[in-house]
Design goal:
Bound molecules: zinc ion
Structural class: alpha/beta
Strand content: 15-25%
Strand order of the largest sheet: 6-13-7-8-12-9-11-10-14-15
Oligomer: single chain
Radius of gyration: 28 Å
Shape: globular
Distance between the termini: 52 Å
Largest sheet: 10 strands, mixed
Helix content: 25-40%
Number of helices: 24
Length: 760
Amino acid sequence: MLVRKAIEVSGIVQGVGFRPYIYRLASERQLAGCIYNTAAGVSIEVQGAPAVVEDFLARVPAGAPPLARITSIKVREVPCNGDREFRIVTTHRGEPVQTLISPDVAVCADCLREMFDPADRRYRYPFINCTNCGPRFTIVRNIPYDRPFTSMSVFPMCPPCQAEYEDPSNRRFHAQPNACRACGPHVELWDGEGKRMDVADPIAEAISLLQVGQVVAIKGLGGFHLACDARNPEAVRILRDRKRRVEKPFAVMVPDLAAVERFCEVDDAARQLLLSLQRPIVLLRRHDGTAMADDVAPFNRYLGVFLPYTPLHYLLFSGAGFAALAMTSANLSEEPICIANDEAVERLQRLADGFLVHNRDILLRCDDSVARVSAGRPRQLRRSRGFVPVPVFVRDEVPSVLAVGGELKNTICLTKGCHAFLSQHIGDLENAESYGFFEEAIEHLQRILEIRPVAIAYDLHPNYFSTRWALAQSGLPQIGVQHHHAHIASCMAENHLEGRVIGFALDGTGYGTDGRIWGGEVLLADYCAFERAAHLAYVPMPGGEAAIREPWRMAVSYLTRHFGCDFVRETPLARDIPPKNLNVLFRMMEQGINSPLTSSCGRLFDAVAALTGVRTQVNYEAQAAIELEMAIGNSTDEGAYPFDLVAENNSWIIDTRSLFEALLQDIARAVPVGDMSRRFHNGLANVLVEVAERLRDRTSLERVCLSGGSFQNVYLFEKLCDRMGKTSFQVFAHSEVPAGDGGLSLGQAMVAAHKLQETG
Ligand SMILES: [Zn+2]
Ligand SMILES: [Zn+2]
Ligand SMILES: [Zn+2]
């Protein structure tokens, strides 16, 4: 007796070697039937003895190729027919195609083995790939994901490559970027002016440049990197000077896991992250006294480390003896990463001494992803290469919405059904080139994902470029979403929560519904609405934006609020400020001139960092807060500064007079900075738990969501998770999506989608 089953598999199952996998699985069991692509994934029919068919069904998800991501399998019985063998029915144009495209992932072990095998026809070929590895998202021009619609279209396959491509039993069956030295792309080395250098082995020559301390621009998967020897202090300093990147840490690429362990502490979760197909940059605690140039990550106890992920990276390390290469996105500070060869030469001329380029076009830029492990789980800080365009799977189907994100670390989000597609990292939109990339990403993602949004969600800040873009679009409803509400909704969406939660949204800047700058917010929120249940007390930001760059201004602001101008004049802080400047500041705050009020958590960190002498001016976003956290060092002090909780109307104001009194006493007593920093963090965690408890008493809510950039502070985050857990709250935080503004667009989309559903 025979049975025949029809199986619908949904998820990312196209372009990842799924059909040859099923072909092998069925053929090995002598099952007849077929497989073909559908809009949702693939359809399979198998026919054979019932026990064999059952065994086949059990094996389908278990042994799926590494890039496949199955979201559902539906099986039904169908009538048997005369099939005798198993066939792959290939896609013809006009057939429905699936919109899930897989991301770019690291070269696989099989390809690496071949690349280092002198007998292999792809020996040392830097573009080796197969269905289990290599570029996808960054070479897609249009869908379906087929070679003619990728940047590989200009490389007709040679007969041996073509044969692999057509053979269902081959690892390269329908591997769209399949190529070899005879038919595929190749590398070239260009000098600092962009002139092609006539060298026999461009990679060996690039290695020589790096070995003598030069900076080389290297074309990667999602864009160019600027690379130099991370153990050569002079080379690192040159890279910093040229990039005009003063103190923001550089990431380093190291040849293998053993090398990572020489530089940093690596636990199991971090090891998995480092070795994952996505190969993100992983922030790891560095060992003391590692042989790394100090300038790689000054004043930072963490180092951003990643392993090679393209064949070219492996070739750069093979036999070259580099313990670590500083690798940073090839751009001037905060501009988008370069992707085209001529663009690289034009924009990077003064930055690079040489260019290792190739002729496989990158169609869409995609920066490296950045992640870390905290409270035992991986946390995305920048979700980009390797992850995009895999959607965030949300609980219920939602209308299609375009959310345009915030201003800094911008991403956009498009929803469709249960999928929320977050874009790659776009960057800071105040930069004209990033803004161009923003528009390009919106257009490109709508096209390749085939999403036609029915509404646009945007941040309430009237001056955000993303907001202005959204409001300039005609024909679609526009839905404004408050910044911190979006943060909490983002956290809820990722954790599949419904209903109301207590949301802690702590960050640097977000536009409030009262026109003030919020950032230390406790909300009672669901997707559609929120109530501001508690917040940090308002203080002026003297000089507006200048107060973000100069944390000492926030210290003056807080001390003036609590103790008055005369007091401030007598503090050690005032010694370094010319009295004239100080008086200007006092007047500005008094008269409300260019001194917007803020409840920002980031600015409170700034004030404490300035007072404790950690940092009075910053060179990159959140630097003072990061260094204040780093200052904890090996302190084990269990003290905690007090905060003041003041009832106001139906909410709580978290005030800071007691905090600053205690802090000033400690400063006067010359308490070590590490202890003061720890007491500040502990105190903040305490008062947040207290607020949560009061809100639980009032509302009976027990679920707490933590979101906003301040939760990228590992000490605060872990402390708060621990304390909340001990007081029986259910704590939800981000893992897949950044807690910072990179995750904002997801929350905006979810709020807008639910508002649309609510109004019908
Ligand atoms: Zn491979
Ligand atoms: Zn070939
Ligand atoms: Zn934010």
